[in-house]
Amino acid sequence: MKLLNLHAHNVFSIGTIDLDLEDKGLVLITGWSNDENNGNMAGKSSVANHCISWGMYGKTVSGIKADDVINTSIKNAKHCGVTLHFEGTDGELYRIYRARKPNSLVLSLRTVWSTIGDPSLEEWQDLSKRNEKDTQELINALLGRDHKTFIQSDFFGQGRERSFLALPGSEQKAVIEEILPLNSLEKWKDKAKEELRLVEQRVEVAETERCMSHERERTALSHLHTLQSQEAGWDTNNAVELSQVQKELNKILFITENIEEEIETLMESIPSTPSRTLEEQVVLERALSQSINSLGYKIDTLTGDIDRRAARPEVCASCEQTLPKDRVELNAEALKNDRVKREELLAERGEKEAKQYLAASMIAICHEIQGLEATIKTKDQKAVLEEKIRLFTNVGNPFAQLVIAADTQVKEEQTLEEEATLRVIKLADEREHYRFWANAFGADLKTMIFNQVCPYLERQTNQYLRDLDNSQIKVKFRTVKLLKSGDARDQFCVTAASDTGSKVFELFSGAEKQLTSFAVGMALSDLAGIQVEGASSFMILDEPFLYQSPENCERIINFITTHLVSGGEGGKTVLLISNEDNLVNLVHDRVHVVKEKGVTSIA
User: Fold this and answer.
1) Sign of the CA dihedral 237, 240, 246, 249?
2) Are 541 and 527 in a shared domain?
3) Are 540 and 52 in contact (CB under 8 A)?
4) What does the record list as coiled-coil region(s) (predicted)?
5) Rg for the chain (alpha carbons), in Å?
6) Model pTM?
């Protein structure tokens, strides 16, 4: 956070002031009130504290806001406000204008600047949001601090309700949480949980699609097998018929004296006359063929139903709802019965196929007898038989194209199932990814961050106490509290003890409390500084050092000069508000304010 310039009018006790804040080093703010005839209530805090805090955050360190900031000592004041120029965390120049009568909050970005330092030649882009809350959030982001963090890390002295060490452990932890990016962790965790919820829904949909695709592939495969069987059966029947015709033709071509004897031998194989046996067996074979096809359809349908229910016995096949336990048990019993029924159908089909084979054999014998008889009667059937052979040879299998189409369908369904499976695997990986981050951004990561931060804050605080020549004071930051019973409990706490004095912060002297609080605040400021681009280059010390000895005052000024002004990179500004004689003589750069008739101005 780097403030560059302050302009204020008609706020708090101020009339109109302009104060350069850029790279001023240590500046002592002193004052005198002609109204009270003393150095108190001169408006020092109004100039170097209230105006700046209210201008940045809309309220002072002590919480004063709204119309309470108006200087009522100025009669008929039509306008009051503060303008602050500052360098944002992104290195750009910004301007805050906050006012009452009328109420206004404007955040602007300088887009064109004057090379000769003429403000009238500058151009500004309004970044204000639709409401003041959103505008303030943007200001906080650009400053790198919100009001609470500013008070604990860049402000020390009067106006603050309680020092960090006086806060209960829960509030101390809350201050550090405001400094650390834990709010971002919470947002990231919520985002990961939302993405996890959405991807789980997509996984469920993908699983359903994969199951449906698998069922379609099984059905298509079953249909293909049926058609392949029918194709093979047709080829077999066609071959048999072709063989019979060829045989008849051969008999006609090679008539021998043994034909009658052959006919007599074949007649012994059939129960009746050839014509009657043929008629009966043809009818029987057709009936058996139809019955076998019907049984095949029933078996395929029952097999698909059995497989589907066996794969997901706990889900209703019709509505996809989870079944109660009693229904699952009933379905298991029904599934068992269906399997028995399928075996019965398979056995029945086997018996009928055997009968069909026998009937086909009988038909073949009858055809052979009739052929032989016809051969004996006449040789004129030669041309007819040769034509039949030609037809049998040239005719195509009617199931061939159906098999090709069914095979294509099976391959398409297999491809779709593979794609659905890959989607499920990919979504499952994505689900595990979001599940990991939803857990990672939770309490475990916060605890780890706090465990890392506590040693840092403790090390910085105690180093600052040593730099202030008060190494007898030790501050500890802990995430575990030891109870009187000796048991440990997870609880954030900060304790301070003196090797030469009290072991409890509340019993420290006023001077010890001020120095210890200052050292802790400096450590918090360091922690806040590493969260943004560079540490803060601005600090307000509003009469934080009272009751200090001349030696301590000299140590404090040396510390401020060494660590706050000269330390680090870039110029810094520290406003020290005090009329303490022990401090006044140690600081060369001063701003003196005077209050006359309720109005403060810079002398």
Assistant:
1) negative
2) no
3) yes
4) 182-209
5) 49
6) 0.54
